[in-house]
Each structure stands twice: as structure tokens, then as C-alpha cells.
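Ops channel
N.P.: pipeline sanity check, posting one input/output pair.
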């Protein structure tokens, strides 16, 4: 569904702006239709109905599917009623920030990992640590590395829901016509670059287009896979930025690819890449897995496949999870926990076969999503995503710290220009020095 797919794409840009719940955000409608039950709802009294609210950023059709799935939760939990509050993604951050600042946030709301970390550290989110400790079987079944990256000083302020991955979509016909073997699990950067060079046509098309991963975090996977120091030394609490020898090697590899015309320039607008791929004009597209939903629905005649992100030596996955959180003051934590647990598991089991945007972070609930991909003729994608999510080495998709916006400006002013040959590689060391100064600043 195009609306849902576009929302997931826009989310990558918007979650950077959700870093922390800020008092004094623009005013929003905070009447009873939007308020949570955290301030004064009497639904916890014996024999009385508990009313919960849940805010999502999904599109109209996927929200309708979520509302339908929630009916099962209400049936399984007599006495609890849930109102789903759809909020346009463009307004989501401002609205949820404003509601939390005046203690009127919904009982459950979708949250980026960075928002959960920063707002939790600021004492603005409910602490689910006791549930994590008592419900060990549940929490032990998340994909490796997921739960640890939602902890703030050992405390859990949200529960992960979905995980993005950044593999490579490829045009099967172009590979066949060029006499090339299709990419598969374990393919290397060298193989990807060779394919991109052979599939490019000067003046007509590049071989490789990067919808995502066209930043230092994306190229950091090369260094991490080679056993060298990644760009950031932590997913959630970076203390140092490094341009390691292998990171510099990756930069030069992509720089050469751009110069030769086999890789699309990093500073080029990427908005139309997915549409070009659907039209059969792009050989290789590195992008988020959510585009598969659009390709399955709207490019039925296109022969495409999906491979995991390439490696040097070891598998590496970019860590990019979203989930659910609650404000620090909630009236009915037991009921809210039941709801969050449901939406992170059973709800996605019901919704994702209809809208296959991303795999659940809870492994047992991922099967219906993978089954949908297989049913649509893409078992290789199901296998590739599962492979990436199980990778022991994970790297951040972006900065998740409170200083992130200050650091990001140094990336924006230099990195893509270096890859495109407009600035020298040495400028990356200056970029790293500037970011490290931001990290060390009081």
C-alpha cells in the first residue's frame, strides 16, 4: 500500500526529530478524544470498565487493520476497551510531545528507539523493568540485541515492535540479461561493486542506487564487517566517532563507484528511486524492507529479488527498531502492559500479512510476516531479513543521543560531498573531530 510505504519511508526522517519530549511544543487539541487515562480515569475500580487509548502513526488502511486486530484483545480481556487514535505522521512528533508535557498522553503510543531512550532518561516514560524481570520468557524471545538497546541504565521504558533492515532489492531480468548470478546471502561488497559496474549504462542508468545507507552509518557496516572500528562506538550511547582504516577503505570504494558512474551520486535526490525500480529502470536498490509492500502490490509484473546487505568477512546488520511506550503516570499499568504485549506480538501477527511493512522484533511473531513474503514469491527476502536480524554485529542507523542534531550538521555538510568527489577524504577526519567535540561538550 503506497500510503503505508510512504509513511515508513518518512518515518526515517521524522524519528530523528523525536529525540526527547520537549515542554513548550506547539499546542494541539487535547480534549478527551486524545487524552490518555493517566490522569484520573476511574476505570481501575473493581467491576468497572478500563478504557485505554493507543496512538499510532500508520496510514488509514493499516490503522483500520490495527483497530480490527484490537477487537481480539478486547475479547480476550473482558472489561478493557481500547480506542485507537490515528495521527498523521507529519503531526505525530509535535502532538505526542505536547500531550506528554501536559500529562495527557495516550496510554500507549508508537515510539522510535531514540525517543524511548531520551524521554525515558528524562523520567517522562513508564518504567517496565519489573515486567521485563518477571516475564523473562517473553523478553528472551526477541531477536538478538534488540532489548539491550532499549535499556537506559538497565531500565526499560518501552517495548520494541518492528525492526527495519537495509538489504538490496535487485532486478532479476537485468541480472539475467547481463549474464550475472543473482545476489545471495554472504555476497561481498566487492561482488556488489562488480555487479553495479556491469549493470550500469553511461548516460542511461547507474548500477547501484542507495535510497538508504548513503551516510557514514551505512558505510560503517563495511568497517564492522571487516573487524575494524565502526563509525560510532555504541548504538545508543556513543562516546567516540572514528574514521578507521577500513571505514576509509569503504569511502574510497564508494567514491570510486560514483566517479565511474556505477553508483548514483550520494548528493542526488533519492525521492524517486523506488518508483524507478518499480518501472524496471534500476538494477540494484539498497533500501528499507518496507518498499516490498509497495512492490508486491503495485509492481506485479516486475521480476525482483532481495539480498541481505553485503559483507566483507562477517554479517552485520543496521539496528533500527520502533516500538511502544507509555507516559510515566498511567492509571492501569497491568492493563496497559497487556495491551503493549499484545500489539507487539498478536496484533502484528494479524496485521502484517495484509501490510508486510517490517518484521516484528519478537521472533515467534515474525512467522506470519515471513509467510506473506514467501506467499508473494519472495522466500529469499524472508530468509535475508531473518539472516540480518540474527547478525551478532549490529550498528546504529543514526545517532540516538540528545546531542544528535548538533552532530548531524557536520555529517550533512561534508559526507556526501566527500563520496561524490567534491571534497577530499581528509575532510572526514575533521568531521569526526567536530562530532567528538560535540560529544564531549558539557
Amino acid at each position: 500500500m503506497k500510503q503505508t510505504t510512504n509513511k515508513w519511508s518518512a518515518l526515517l526522517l521524522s524519528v530523528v526529530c523525536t529525540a526527547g519530549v520537549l515542554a513548550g511544543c506547539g499546542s494541539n487539541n487535547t480534549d478527551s478524544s486524545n487524552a490518555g487515562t493517566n490522569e484520573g480515569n476511574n476505570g481501575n475500580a473493581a467491576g468497572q470498565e478500563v478504557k485505554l487509548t493507543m496512538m499510532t502513526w500508520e496510514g488509514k488502511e493499516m490503522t483500520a487493520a490495527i483497530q480490527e486486530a484490537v477487537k481480539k484483545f478486547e475479547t480476550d480481556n473482558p472489561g478493557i476497551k481500547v480506542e485507537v487514535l490515528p495521527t498523521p505522521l507529519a503531526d505525530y512528533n509535535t502532538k505526542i510531545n505536547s500531550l506528554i508535557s501536559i500529562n495527557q498522553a495516550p496510554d500507549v503510543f508508537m515510539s522510535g528507539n531514540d525517543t524511548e531512550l531520551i524521554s525515558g532518561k528524562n523520567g517522562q516514560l513508564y518504567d517496565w523493568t519489573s515486567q521485563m524481570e518477571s516475564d523473562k520468557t517473553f523478553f528472551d524471545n526477541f531477536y538478538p540485541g534488540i532489548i539491550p538497546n532499549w535499556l537506559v541504565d538497565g531500565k526499560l521504558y518501552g517495548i520494541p515492535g518492528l525492526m527495519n533492515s537495509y538489504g538490496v532489492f535487485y532486478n532479476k531480468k537485468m541480472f539475467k540479461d547481463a549474464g550475472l548470478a543473482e545476489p545471495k546471502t554472504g555476497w561481498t561488497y566487492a561482488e556488489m561493486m562488480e555487479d553495479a559496474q556491469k549493470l550500469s549504462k553511461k548516460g542511461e542508468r547507474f548500477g547501484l542506487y542507495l535510497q538508504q545507507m548513503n551516510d557514514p552509518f551505512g558505510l560503517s557496516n563495511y568497517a564492522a564487517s571487516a573487524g575494524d572500528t565502526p563509525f560510532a562506538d555504541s548504538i545508543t550511547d556513543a562516546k567516540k566517532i572514528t574514521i578507521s582504516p577500513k571505514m576509509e577503505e569503504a569511502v574510497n570504494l564508494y567514491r570510486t563507484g560514483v566517479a565511474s558512474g556505477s553508483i548514483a551520486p550520494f548528493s542526488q535526490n533519492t525521492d524517486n528511486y523506488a518508483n524507478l525500480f518499480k518501472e524496471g529502470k534500476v538494477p540494484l536498490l539498497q533500501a528499507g524492507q518496507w518498499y516490498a509492500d509497495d512492490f508486491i502490490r503495485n509492481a506485479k509484473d516486475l521480476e525482483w529479488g532481495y539480498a541481505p546487505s553485503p559483507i566483507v568477512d562477517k554479517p552485520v546488520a543496521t539496528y533500527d527498531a520502533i516500538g511502544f511506550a507509555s507516559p510515566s503516570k498511567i492509571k492501569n499499568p497491568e492493563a496497559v502492559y497487556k495491551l503493549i504485549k499484545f500489539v507487539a506480538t498478536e496484533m502484528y501477527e494479524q496485521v502484517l500479512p495484509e501490510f508486510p511493512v517490517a518484521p516484528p522484533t519478537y521472533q515467534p511473531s515474525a512467522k506470519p510476516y515471513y509467510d506473506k513474503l514467501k506467499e508473494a514469491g519472495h522466500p529469499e527476502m524472508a530468509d535475508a531479513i531473518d539472516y540480518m536480524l540474527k547478525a551478532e554485529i549490529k550498528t546504529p542507523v543514526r545517532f540516538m543521543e540528545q546531542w544528535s542534531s548538533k552532530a548531524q550538521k557536520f555529517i550533512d555538510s561534508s559526507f556526501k560531498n566527500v563520496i561524490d568527489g567534491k571534497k577530499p577524504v581528509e575532510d572526514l577526519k575533521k568531521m569526526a573531530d567536530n562530532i567528538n567535540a560535540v560529544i564531549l561538550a558539557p
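N.P.: looks fine end to end. The two ends are 45 Å apart (CA to CA).
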